[in-house]
Amino acid sequence: MKEKCGVAGIYLRPSEHEVFQAARLAYFALYSLQHRGQESAGIAVADGVRIDARKGMGLVAEVFNEEDLRSLTGHIACAHALYSTSGAATADHIQPFVIRSKLGGIALAHNGNLVNYEQLKEFLEETGSTFLSHSDTEVIVKLIAKSYKKGLERALTDTIQMIKGSFALVVMTENALIGARDPNGIRPLCLGKLHNGWMLASESCAVDAVGGEFVRDISPGEIVIINDDGVLSFEFGERTAKRTCIFEYVYFARPDSVLDTIPVQEARLRMGAVLARENPVDADVVLGVPDSGLGAAMGYSAASGIPYVMGIVKNKYIGRTFIAPTQDTREKMVFVKHNALKSDVAGKRVIIIDDSIVRGTTCKRLVQVLRNAGAREVHFRISSPPVRFPCYFGIDTPCRAELISSAHTEAEVRDEIGADSLAFISIDGMFEALRSISPKTYGYCKGCFTGEYPIPFPGELNGRRL
Q1: Which residues have a catalytic role annotated?
Q2: I need a labelling partner for 395 at 20 to 30 A (CA). Which of 86, 112, 223, 254 fits?
Q3: Radius of gyration in angstroms for the set of CA atoms belonging to the chain, rounded to a whole number
Q4: Looking at the chain, which residues constitute the CATH 3.60.20.10 domain(s)?
Q5: Phi and psi at residue 264, in whole multiples of 5°?
């Protein structure tokens, strides 16, 4: 049960004159991170004495109502929105995970995936721990609790040095909020300033959503502890090369977010421009697949001089098909998710830009939609290289058999989706686009394209879907 998800944390300065509702700010932060997980949501709060939590299956607005938010009183909050890639989401896996002991309470929300989960779980079971879930997040929180008697800082450091993989953590005690990012910085995490406190979030758009000020990204291998004294920062291990997940810029992150100093929309515009230079084609219009293909389409249009049109209308009430847990569900959702604007495409040679091809479900349907609307030619262009390898760090690419580009040539994929032509941006071109924005922060995980990963992983992780 592995997930790609969103985390958030709120710390407000205690006051005798106010009833603090950090939970309300956490709710709005989660709402802005809903694109990162649509299966469950949870918020835990602390008031200096105790930790309380509300969690449930569904979207953020379905899990929480006004009464819930009023009852979650406290000046600290830890929040999480999840989707599981295995299609077996249950209440046992909803985060934040909360543990209460005589030494104090801990709530933890995690975005990422541990590659040594099995070994750590076995170690904990041998020392008396029991588990309610198959989530590696439960392993992390129990490792922290096991060392809590050494003090919070030591417990965090000991735990983080034991876990291997990708992680962006938001941890809460009765009196503090903590954030940590793995040494490679694979998963994003940022720090924001509120008028009466601080916050942590997977993306800067969540800081904007609550009226905060984006301060900076948490550095790879950094821990920040936020309490009444302010923000304490320290590194928990040797500095390693930054390897941010490239798919954050390609697909996952909202276009209004800034990750590791790079504006996501600007990254997509420049990827589109490079794609146009590398893979030109004679056409009448350019359009993008809503929503994550729009930026690249605009960049392609600007660089090629071919007019940009809307072309496709998206039903906003259908969830992301990439996140849908089964192939049958994905196909049904794609069928009703998009429709073509005939006035934009009828009788025309169309270039359609998407961010990636994973299973090919969406692309095949979009070609059909455009042809049914009268498009004379349909040329598919992809603003990322072919995805040929699974991700072991928290993305829903569970096995190579489900990746269409892993088992087929580019020409075979073109024929499978029914396009007149198909082309992908090169790896060098994609990285060129990012370097042109921020050369000092260069360094990305490209495992899904090349099979070269920043962290060794044990075989197929004991057959676990990631």
Answers
A1: 5
A2: 223
A3: 22
A4: 6-240
A5: -60, -45
- Residue 209 Cα distances to 8, 30, 200, 203, angstroms: 12, 9, 13, 11
d(CA 410, CA 159): 44
Question: Any idea how long the chain is?
Answer: 466
How does DSSP assign 251-314, residue by residue?
A: IIS-TT-EETTEEHHHHHHHHHHHHHHHS----SEEEE-TTTTHHHHHHHHHHH-PPB---EEE
- Residues 359-390 as b/e (b if ≥16 CB within 10 A, e otherwise) read bbbbbbbbbbbbbebebebbbbbbbbbbbbbb
Is-above-0.85 flag for pTM?
Answer: yes
- The 10s digit of each residue's pLDDT in 250-266 is 999 999 999 999 999 99
The per-residue DSSP string of 3-24 comes to B--EEEEEEE---TT---BHHH
Number of Cβ within 10 Å of residue 75's Cβ equals 24
Which tokens sit at 378?
A: 């349909």
Q: Percentage of the chain with pLDDT > 90?
A: 69
Return the minimum-mean-pLDDT range out of 46-60, 245-259, 332-346: 332-346
pLDDT in tens, 186-239: 999 999 999 999 999 999 999 999 999 999 999 999 999 999 999 999 988 666
- Domain spanning 258-441, CATH architecture: 3-Layer(aba) Sandwich (3.40)
Contacts of 420 (CB under 8 A, 6+ apart): 377, 378, 379
| pLDDT tens digits, one per residue of 284-301 | 999 999 988 999 999 999
φ, ψ at 456 (rounded to 5°): -65, 145
Kindly tell me the burial class for residue 19, based on how many C-beta atoms sit within 10 Å of its own C-beta (0-12, 13-18, 19 or more). exposed
Classify domain 6-240 at the CATH class level: alpha beta
Residue 2 is predicted with a pLDDT of 37
As given in the structure block, the two tokens for residue 180 are 């940590």
| 192 vs 215: CA distance, rounded Å | 5
What stretch(es) of the chain map to CATH 3.40.50.2020?
258-441
Mean pLDDT estimate for the chain: 89
Three-state secondary structure call for residue 334: helix
pLDDT at site 466: 29
For 167, the token pair is 């992680």
Distance CA 323, CA 58 (A): 13
pLDDT at 153: 84
Query: CA–CA distance from 127 to each of 103, 116, 142, 308 (Å)?
Result: 18, 17, 11, 61
Q: Helices 117-126 and 136-146 meet at what angle, rounded to 10?
A: 50
